[in-house]
Amino acid sequence: MTRRAWWRDAVFYQIYPRSFADSNGDGVGDLPGIIAHLDHLRGSPASLGVDAIWLSPFYQSPMADFGYDVTDHCAVDPLFGTLDDFDRLLTEAHRRGLRMIVDLVPNHTSDLHPWFRESRSSRTNPKRDWYVWRDAHRDGDAPPNNWLAAFGGGWPAWTKDLETGAWYLHSFLPSQPDLNWENPAVEAAIHDVMRFWLRRGVDGFRIDAVHKLGKAPDLRDNHGSFTGAVVGDRGLRFDEDWPTVHGRLARMRAVAREFGDRVLVGEVYILDPERLAAYLRSGRGLDLAHNFSFLRLPWRGAAFAHAVSAFEGLVGRQGWPAWCLNNHDHSRVATRYASERAARVAAMLVLTLRGTPFLYQGEELGLEDGVIPPERVVDVEGRDPERCPIPWVDPAIAGVGAGFTSGRPGLPLPPDAGVRNVATETADPASVLALYRHLLAVRTGTPALKAGAFESISSEGDVFAYRRRLGHESIAVYLNFGSGEVPLRGRGSVLASTLMAGDPGTVDGSFELGPVSGLVVKEQ
Ligand code: NOJ
After folding, report:
1. Is the domain of 404 the same as that of 499?
2. Domain count, the chain
3. Pocket of ligand 1, candidates 68, 295, 378: which has the most ligand atoms within 8 Å of its Cβ, to mutate?
């Protein structure tokens, strides 16, 4: 019998190093800061109880895209610490039973990367073909094709370089030139980067912008204009999701497997569930692919029920989803739905579905997006609000740094840091943090929630209810998205309630589920 892969049972927690914890008072989070706060995640009685960390980029970078613009894939940026700090972090994480995966950014580099500096220096440089260069469009001094960058709301994905008069491709910022994945030397170089970190002991990678690793080699025009992820329209865009991507992922997987039980998680930013599922069904490349559907849904039970059931149908019993509510690129769930109660219901959902949950730092506190005054904006794409620092202690006690820094935080604290901080919420048995801890403990101790089959019970109107079943164990989850009480039927002991108000007791026949709330019931 094959052993069940560890990442199927794991709950991941994303750390965005800039805003997690600062150890040296410069206002920016760093690796020693993370080490100092690992107890928050695992290893002490008050820990959240997650199983794995996804560490966002900490590599050497000019920070035009805060680390997603790399100048050396195998070096730690001094802002975040040293390679020794990284090794210590990994050792400390492993000592606590936490696995750690790191971001891999294979689609592009910084324009200051030595590879690109060489590539742009002349048309005959040996690294010329490491990036995607073309002459102007035949109609004149215009980009070679009509592809658009994902950033900038409609910028061309091409910039003319003055050194040689040719244009280079960039799917994101002009300072993030795309590597040429048609060139085997590029692929081999990225494999070497993977081996570098795998040798150090990382448990796998979250791979950035996976869908961009396959583009039509003839760079033909997209039909129409596409500025971001587009639902449907297969075959109309040629700047991503080209079939070559699957072979490339399979070869990355082979590299990861040289080191045993490591995981590859893909950021496949494709919102069409059918096309996303293709990345999992091949069984040769990614182990997990983020499903971003919850980031865009209206607050309706039926909408969430539909998204879950549709994806369950597409990936089948063997396939394994990866659900998330937040990350460093999207408005936080408490802000999107303007309600802490909704954030609690969403937490119960993501921690009881079939699949691997990915949490984003601060969602366990119910944090909202920060408010950024114009003079403090740093991200070109407007993503600062979800990247505000984690408040560890009430600023009235710890000062403006809220335990995140002894200096002035690089970005403002999120709203209500006086109550939404780790220390205050730890002391409150009904806090959002208490709910996350409890749901994680329930998940960890309930095999059906980890591995059981999913079956929808109700997906009408405001209520999304489902069952997870494994052997004789049967767990029902009732989520009410609506603002009124709903009558339901069920029988069993309540394992968790979103309100965290005292002993949850039992349900026995008919019961009322309050507005915007949820229950997990162990059925008898
Ligand atoms: C996705 C990352 O999550 C985002 O932060 C980044 O800007 C783009 N990929 C480009 O690397």
Report:
1. no
2. 3
3. 68
